[in-house]
Structure formats: structure tokens, C-alpha cells
Automatic annotation (TrEMBL):
Keywords: Isomerase, tRNA processing. Belongs to the pseudouridine synthase TruD family. The lineage of its organism: Bacteria, Pseudomonadati, Pseudomonadota, Gammaproteobacteria, Aeromonadales. NCBIfam families: PRK00984.1-2, tRNA_TruD_broad. InterPro entries: PsdUridine_synth_cat_dom_sf, PsdUridine_synth_TruD, PsdUridine_synth_TruD_CS, PsdUridine_synth_TruD_insert, TruD_catalytic, TruD_insert_sf, TruD_pseudoU_synthase. It is an enzyme of class 5 (isomerase). Its EC number is 5.4.99.27. GO terms for molecular function: tRNA pseudouridine(13) synthase activity. The active site is at 78 (nucleophile). It catalyses: uridine(13) in tRNA = pseudouridine(13) in tRNA. This is tRNA pseudouridine synthase D. Residues 153-299 form the TRUD domain. It holds the Pfam family TruD.
């Protein structure tokens, strides 16, 4: 799906490989708070390699003697990576389970602490990434591109994983909007998210194509930095432009749903025009009960550092929850992801 989207810094010339090994893609969750130490939930920090989130959740449920739906997580993590992520286990009135029984060469329990609230999807500050891109075809222009990404950011595109292999989730969403009934709530949610993400990406790429990704349009919907507070002003003022340039506010694009666009005037007209040929997708999301929301147009990796040696680039940065590291990589190199899908994995579900 990303192949059709416009680059902010131009298409990269350097090619390379992403995830040649799980250790080439390291993700560490940051909840943004510490579990309080008491309550009917246990927060468990797990380090895993080559295992998917749902499979580990099932192991934790078995070890704790609870139903699978009593185990939650803040965010799904790629199976073909080394990740440290949090799981929540609802254990009202029960003692501490022995979770060490699930440990193996690929799964380690790092920490387990009580908390008084359920761990929900998106219930985290963000993720720290350390990536190793290998087999680079060269390095010409790469240093300049790295600096540009660090300073100006990248399009906040939803990554390929949101759409499923070959866009399967979008195909399923289209069938659902055409009348096919999806009984599984999780699958339904997945398909709606894919459709919504596709519309968002469409608006973002249109702004880049029209060279207004960094430019205020009259009526643009802005988001305050570090919050989800949004507002829209009918006119472009020097003060507003200065706040955008300083990073105090961010341009946003719509996550489609019911209700009026949060943008107005010229900006709203731009967004409507960008999505004019996708009316059936918009209507499908509205009928499914999704509400209008907003998401930042651009994504700036925080604390970005890199080391370039021979044919390998090691890269580290922090992204807020919901952002995709692959969208950062895409602006740097033309990356081919190592094909792990031919492998068999009896309990991964992938």
C-alpha cells in the first residue's frame, strides 16, 4: 500500500534489508508511568523474540489460570522482532501466579507488578526503536537524508502491517461495506481500522503532492504538541504560522467517521477533494458508527541517532503510540523486508 504514496524527501536511492534477523528490529514499550504496586491487575513486562503478541498472551493466560480475554496488551508488536512489551492480567482476589513457566529461549519475564487499572490498547506513551538496516547498496546522500528526517520528520503514514498481506484487510473491509456480515468483533475492528487508515494516508499524500505538508491552509485543524487537543482557525495568521514553525502545534488529517470535519474552509475543501473518489469507503465507516477524529499529518522521530558503517545503518529513535517505524525507514532507504512468512511456526498464528 505504501508504494503508491508520495515521499516527503523524494524517493530514496539507497536500497537495503530490514529485519534480516529479529535482533535487527528492537522495540521497547514506554508506558509513560509506573504500575502503582497494588490492585486487581498484574502488569507483566515481557521480552520476546520471534513470537507474536497474541500467542504470548495465551501463554500468560494459561499460566495465570484465567480466560484468554483476561489478558490484554497496550499494542501489537511485530513477531519478527525483539520486543519488550507490557501485558495486563486481570486477577481479582487471586494471589501471584508463577509466570516463569512460560519462559524459554524466546520469552523472558522481566517484571510483574500490580496495578489498579486495566491495561488497554493505546495505554502507553510510545516506543523506543533500535533498527539495523543491512546490505546497503551504498551511502551516497544518506547522511543528508538522515539529517532531513531528524529535522523535518516523515509522513505519518500507517504502515503496511495495518492493511494485511497484499492489502487483505482492505479487501475484507470492502466486502463488509458491501453487505458481508463479520461476526468476529476483533476482525471487524481490524477491517474498519484498515479502511480508515487508507483514507488518512490518501489525504496525507495529497498534501505532500500539492506541496502543502508544511503549509497552513485556512481552516486547518491543528493539534497541540504532546496532547490530543485540536482546534481550527478560519484564517491563517502570522501567530499561527509561527506556532506551526516552532512545533507548538501540528497539522492534522482526518480519521474518517460520522459528523462534520474538524477542519473548515479551504482545508476542509482540500480534504473533501482528496477523498472525493472514495465515497463508498467514507459511507461505510460512517454507517459502522466510527466518529470523526484527527491524527498528526507528519511524524518527527524524537532523539534520533544513527551510525553508518560499511553496508549497515544502525538507527535509534522514539515514536509516540500509534506511529510506525516503517514509515521512518521508508523515507531513508528503499528497504526490502526479509521474507519470514515461508517459515513454519506452529503456535504463532502467522
Amino acid at each position: 500500500m505504501l508504494e503508491q504514496l508520495t515521499y516527503l524527501h523524494g524517493q530514496p536511492a539507497v536500497t537495503g534489508v530490514l529485519k534480516a534477523a529479529p535482533s535487527d528490529f528492537v522495540v521497547i514499550e514506554d508506558l509513560g508511568f509506573e504500575p502503582c504496586g497494588e490492585g486487581e491487575h498484574i502488569f507483566v513486562r515481557v521480552r520476546k523474540s520471534g513470537e507474536n503478541t497474541a500467542w504470548v498472551a495465551g501463554l500468560l493466560a494459561d499460566a495465570a489460570g484465567v480466560n484468554r480475554n483476561a489478558v490484554t496488551w497496550a499494542g501489537l508488536k511485530d513477531r519478527h522482532a525483539v520486543t519488550e512489551q507490557w501485558f495486563g492480567i486481570h486477577l481479582p482476589g487471586k494471589g501471584e501466579p508463577d509466570l516463569s513457566v512460560i519462559e524459554s529461549d524466546s520469552i523472558q519475564i522481566l517484571e510483574a507488578r500490580r496495578h489498579n487499572r486495566k491495561l488497554r490498547t493505546g495505554y502507553l506513551k510510545g516506543n523506543h526503536f533500535t533498527l539495523r538496516l543491512t546490505g546497503l547498496s551504498g551511502s551516497e546522500g544518506l547522511e543528508v537524508r538522515l539529517q532531513a528526517v531528524a529535522e523535518q520528520g516523515v509522513p505519518n503514514y500507517y504502515g503496511e502491517q495495518r492493511f494485511g498481506r497484499g492489502g487483505n484487510n482492505l479487501e475484507a473491509a470492502k466486502a463488509m461495506f458491501g453487505g458481508k456480515r463479520i461476526k468476529d468483533r476483533n476482525k471487524r475492528s481490524l477491517y474498519l481500522s484498515a479502511a480508515r487508515s487508507m483514507l488518512f494516508n490518501t489525504v496525507v499524500t495529497a498534501r505532500i503532492e500539492q506541496r502543502v505538508a508544511h503549509t497552513l491552509l485556512a481552516g486547518d485543524c491543528l493539534m497541540l504538541k504532546g496532547s490530543h487537543t485540536i482546534f481550527s482557525e478560519p484564517e491563517v495568521t502570522p501567530e499561527l504560522a509561527a506556532r506551526l514553525a516552532s512545533g507548538d502545534v501540528q497539522l492534522t488529517a482526518p480519521l474518517w467517521g460520522r459528523g462534520r470535519l474538524a477542519s473548515q474552509g479551504e482545508a476542509a475543501a482540500f480534504e473533501e477533494a482528496a477523498l472525493s473518489e472514495l465515497a463508498e469507503w467514507r459511507e461505510g465507516l460512517e454507517k459502522a458508527g466510527m466518529d470523526q477524529e484527527r491524527r498528526p499529518l507528519l511524524l518527527r522521530p524524537e532523539g534520533m541517532q544513527w551510525q553508518l558503517e560499511a553496508d549497515t545503518l544502525t538507527l535509534s529513535f522514539f515514536l509516540p503510540a500509534g506511529a510506525f517505524a516503517t514509515s521512518v525507514v521508508r523515507e531513508l532507504i528503499d528497504a526490502r523486508e526479509a521474507d519470514h512468512y515461508g517459515e513454519t511456526h506452529a503456535h504463532s498464528g502467522e
